[in-house]
Amino acid sequence: MPADHQIEHSHRDEFVLAPESIPSTVFCDPGSLQQSNAAHTPDPLGPDPESSVEVFADLGLSSSEIAQYFGVPEGRITRLRKVLGRKAMPC
């Protein structure tokens, strides 16, 4: 077997990790990783929580039912409904 063929063959057998396959904790401390993940966690109520609550309230659902549907505390839904009520009040 020619020497060139052996060299080419050995290069094909090398194990190389792609950068995206290496765990990110290798490159940063765990504290910053947790903060980063928290910042990117989507809100269960979506990008516009007030509108989400408003739609379900218009359908006749109670704060408790809306909270249960979205898996959030009922107090959060109650607060959002109060904000919506204030916006609906005439000046």
Strand and helix layout:
Blueprint: H1 3-12, H2 30-39, H3 49-58, H4 63-70, H5 74-88
Helix pairs in contact: 3-5, 4-5
What does this structure look like?
This protein is mainly α. The protein has 5 helices and no strands.
Question: Can you give keywords for this protein?
Answer:
91 residues; mainly alpha; 58% helix; 0% strand
Provide a compact summary of the structure.
By secondary structure, the chain is mainly alpha-helical.
Overall mean pLDDT: 75
Q: What order do the SSEs take from the amino end to the carboxyl end, as H and E?
A: HHHHH
* Largest beta-sheet details: none
**Poorly predicted runs of 5 or more residues:** none
